[in-house]
Design brief:
single chain; alpha+beta; Aminopeptidase; twelve-stranded mixed β-sheet; 8 helices; 12 strands; 32% strand; globular
C-alpha cells in the first residue's frame, strides 16, 4: 500500500506538476497550469475539490471533482483521477478516490462521470463502482495540405472571434450546437455570464482562429479552436439546426484550421462521440485520422 499523503492542491506550487500528470495520461489534451487555474476559478460555485497525492516530497497523483455546471440532472458530478505512471497500482488512486467519495456525499452527488483512455484505468474505475458508458474517438491531423476554402454562399460571411465586439454570437451558436451532441445527461444552457466564466474566459481559446459563419447577422456555424503552443484542439464544430446538411461545418472548420496553420500551428486534435456520425464524416473528409479512444464512465451515488 502506498505511503503517499493526500492533501489539498497548492495551485502555486503544484500546477505545473499536475499539468504534467495530465499530459502523461492524456497526451492529446491541451492542459497546462493556466488552464488548471481557470477551471478552479470557474468552479468556485460548484463545490470543487482538488487534491494531490504526495510521496517523498513529490506530487504523484491528482484528483478533482465538482458539480457539473452544464447538466440539468440534479447532483450530476464530474471527477478525474490521474496518477503518475511509475506510481500506478500502488494504491495512490484508491486513496484519492476514497477522499472524493466523502465529498460526493457532502455535496449531494447522484451520478459521477469521468473519462479514461486505457485498460488499466478502466479496471481501476470498475473496481470503484464505475461502468463504461459512451465512447469517443480522438482524432489527429497534421496541419499541412489543408483543403482550399470553399466558396461562401451568397450573403454569408466568415468572422474570426477576435473581430467581433463581444462573445454573444459564439454563446448563441454554442448553446444550439452543444445541446445536440450525444450525452449521458441532459444539457443545461448556461446564461451568458456563466458561459463566459466557464468557457469564454478559457486562456486556451484561440480568438484569432476560432471562426463563425454568419447568414446576415445570424451566426449559423462555428469552428472553435483552443490552442497551446503549436497544437490546437477543436472545442466545438457545428451548425445551427436549420442550416445543417449544406457543408457549412466543413467550410467553417477549413477556415479556422487554415488560419491556425498560417499562424504557426502544426497539429490539430478533436474528439467526437462514436455515435455522432455527421461530425465523424466531416472530420474524416478533412483528413483527421483515429488517434486514441476515450471512454466516459459513470457511477451512481446512493
Amino acid at each position: 500500500m502506498t505511503s503517499a499523503q493526500i492533501r489539498p492542491l497548492d495551485l502555486t506550487a503544484d500546477a505545473e506538476t499536475v499539468a504534467g500528470l495530465f499530459g502523461e495520461a492524456f497526451p492529446f489534451l491541451l492542459y497546462d497550469a493556466g488552464y488548471l487555474a481557470h477551471r478552479i476559478r470557474a468552479a468556485a460555485r460548484h463545490h470543487r475539490l482538488d487534491l494531490v497525492a504526495e510521496q517523498d516530497g513529490r506530487v504523484v497523483g491528482f484528483a478533482s471533482t465538482q458539480l457539473d455546471a452544464e447538466s440539468d440532472l440534479p447532483g450530476a458530478t464530474v471527477a478525474q483521477v490521474v496518477v503518475a505512471e511509475a506510481h500506478r497500482r500502488q494504491g495512490v488512486g484508491t486513496r484519492l478516490i476514497d477522499e472524493l467519495r466523502g465529498h460526493w456525499r457532502r455535496i449531494g452527488s447522484t451520478m459521477v462521470a469521468g473519462r479514461l483512455t486505457d485498460d488499466g484505468a478502466a479496471r481501476f474505475a470498475a473496481r470503484n463502482g464505475f461502468s463504461k458508458s459512451r465512447t469517443e474517438r480522438i482524432s489527429h491531423r497534421p496541419l499541412t495540405g489543408l483543403p482550399e476554402l470553399p466558396e461562401l454562399p451568397a450573403g454569408y460571411r466568415l468572422r474570426r472571434l477576435a473581430e467581433l465586439p463581444d462573445m454573444h454570437a459564439l454563446h448563441r451558436i454554442d448553446s444550439v450546437v452543444v445541446a445536440d451532441i450525444p450525452s449521458d445527461e441532459p444539457y443545461s444552457v448556461l446564461s451568458y455570464d456563466d458561459w463566459v466564466a466557464l468557457h469564454g474566459s478559457d486562456p486556451r481559446l484561440d480568438r484569432e482562429s476560432t471562426t463563425l459563419l454568419f447568414d446576415g447577422d445570424r451566426p449559423v456555424a462555428v469552428a472553435w479552436l483552443d490552442r497551446i503552443g503549436d497544437r490546437v484542439w477543436s472545442g466545438l464544430t457545428g451548425t445551427d439546426r436549420e442550416y445543417r446538411g449544406r457543408g457549412l461545418a466543413r467550410l467553417v472548420k477549413i477556415a479556422a484550421l487554415r488560419d491556425a496553420a498560417a499562424r504557426g500551428a502544426t497539429d490539430a486534435y478533436t474528439n467526437n462521440d462514436a455515435d455522432n456520425a455527421p461530425m465523424l464524416a466531416v472530420n474524416n473528409r478533412l483528413g483527421y485520422r483515429p488517434h486514441a479512444t476515450q471512454y466516459t464512465v459513470l457511477r451512481r451515488v446512493s
